[in-house]
């Protein structure tokens, strides 16, 4: 209670917070370092503790954005994961049994439909849409609000998958309480999405041995010229009560590295356009040193695809070797000072592996372009 009183006092000093019910101890501890500015709302009454819905609301500050005032994609991804973690953990503990916390396993493709700016309020709403025996599907929508004009717009849509891990043993995956569907078709559609993402996760494991190596004196517009790495020591503020890293923290670091790669290649202001599926192959524990590496794989006329790999090194444990923890593809676009899209310098692949990755990226680009055109024709 003393912690809650302190949080409300701090929020009254200028940081926005509103609660539809008191914050539980579990939710309070869920995100250390962000207690004063995140508003956690349960939609409904007391039964909302097991509800399928949840909302996070907070204002965007200067440290959330780049020099042009656009909110970092990683900041948005982190908020999306927070909302998903809260409602999936709440749902997985809605019945009597062993207590657990939901861990992020995968994020489906996420499109950044519209930029968010400093001073706008982000409303992140999450809903559980499907459960299998050991996983939870959460769909998240992000709306930005200009509090001066009242204008709202949809900025992001995302689908995340979580698995419940026992509080007693983090390597033990528990069963998920089933949800009640309003229509039989919802369960069937959810099962199809579950099987599809399960198959795609298996297909990404072949990349686990792929390592990004530095190159001396690279030429401009080559893969080696813009490739970048970030090394981060995992501390307590990065972790859950279990002692492993929040998925949102990992995604934010991945976006930072991808942004550096894009900026080095273009030498302009850049923003995240979309994120392909992010796969979390293994947990990252407190005390690990993680290396987040990014490299350009493909460029179209106005977009760049960047592959990001996360490797974890348990430096305090001699019995566990360095391992691949996560991987994803980010797409960035280059913007002028006026916010208009700019042409992207064309990537020059040099090695056979780089040429192969370029063609694979081109295939993903054309596939997504055809999908968007199909959706546009359907809506028309």
From TrEMBL:
Comp. bias (Basic and acidic residues): 353-363
GO biological process, one term: medium-chain fatty-acyl-CoA catabolic process
PANTHER family assigned: ACYL COENZYME A THIOESTER HYDROLASE, CYTOSOLIC ACYL COENZYME A THIOESTER HYDROLASE
Entry keyword Lipid metabolism: yes
Region (Disordered) residue spans: 350-380
Single GO MF descriptor: long-chain fatty acyl-CoA binding
Segments forming domain HotDog ACOT-type: 50-168, 224-338
Keywords: Cytoplasm, Hydrolase, Lipid metabolism, Repeat, Serine esterase, Signal
Subcellular localization: Cytoplasm
Name of the top EC class for this enzyme: hydrolase
Protein's name according to its UniProt entry: palmitoyl-CoA hydrolase
Catalytic residue positions: 66, 255
EC code: 3.1.2.2
Signal peptide feature range: 1-25
GO CC, one annotated term: nucleoplasm
Disulfide bond found in the keyword field: no
Lineage, uppermost ranks: Eukaryota, Metazoa, Chordata, Craniata, Vertebrata
């Amino acid at each position: 209670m003393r912690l809650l009183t302190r949080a409300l006092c701090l929020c009254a000093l200028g940081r926005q917070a509103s609660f539809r019910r008191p914050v539980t101890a579990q939710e309070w501890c869920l995100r250390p370092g962000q207690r004063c500015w995140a508003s956690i709302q349960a939609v409904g009454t007391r039964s909302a503790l097991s509800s399928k819905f949840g909302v996070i609301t907070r204002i965007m500050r200067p440290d959330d954005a780049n020099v042009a005032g656009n909110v970092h994609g990683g900041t948005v991804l982190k908020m999306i994961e927070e909302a998903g973690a809260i409602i999936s953990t709440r749902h997985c503990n809605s019945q009597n049994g062993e207590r657990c916390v939901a861990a992020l396993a995968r994020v489906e493709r996420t499109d950044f439909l519209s930029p968010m700016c400093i001073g706008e309020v982000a409303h992140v709403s999450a809903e559980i849409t499907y459960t299998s025996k050991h996983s939870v599907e959460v769909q998240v929508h992000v709306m930005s609000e200009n509090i001066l004009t009242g204008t709202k717009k949809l900025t992001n849509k995302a689908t995340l998958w979580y698995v419940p891990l026992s509080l007693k043993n983090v390597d033990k995956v528990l069963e998920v309480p089933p949800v009640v569907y309003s229509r039989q078709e919802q369960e069937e559609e959810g099962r199809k999405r579950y099987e599809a993402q399960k198959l795609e996760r298996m297909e990404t494991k072949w990349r686990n041995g792929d390592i990004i190596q530095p190159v001396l004196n690279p030429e401009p517009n080559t893969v080696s010229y813009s490739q970048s790495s970030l090394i981060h020591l995992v501390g307590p503020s990065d972790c859950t009560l279990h002692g492993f890293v929040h998925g949102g923290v990992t995604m934010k670091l991945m976006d930072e590295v991808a942004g550096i790669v894009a900026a080095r290649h273009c030498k302009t202001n850049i923003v995240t356009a979309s994120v392909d599926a992010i796969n979390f192959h293994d947990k990252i524990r407190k005390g690990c040193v993680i290396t987040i590496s990014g490299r350009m794989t493909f460029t179209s006329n106005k977009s760049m695809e960047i592959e990001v790999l996360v490797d974890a090194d348990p430096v305090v444990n001699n019995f566990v070797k360095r391992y691949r923890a996560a991987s994803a593809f980010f797409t960035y676009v280059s913007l002028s000072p006026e916010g208009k899209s700019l042409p992207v310098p064309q990537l020059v692949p040099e090695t056979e592996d780089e040429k192969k990755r370029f063609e694979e990226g081109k295939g993903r680009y054309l596939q997504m372009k055809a999908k968007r055109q199909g959706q546009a024709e359907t809506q028309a």
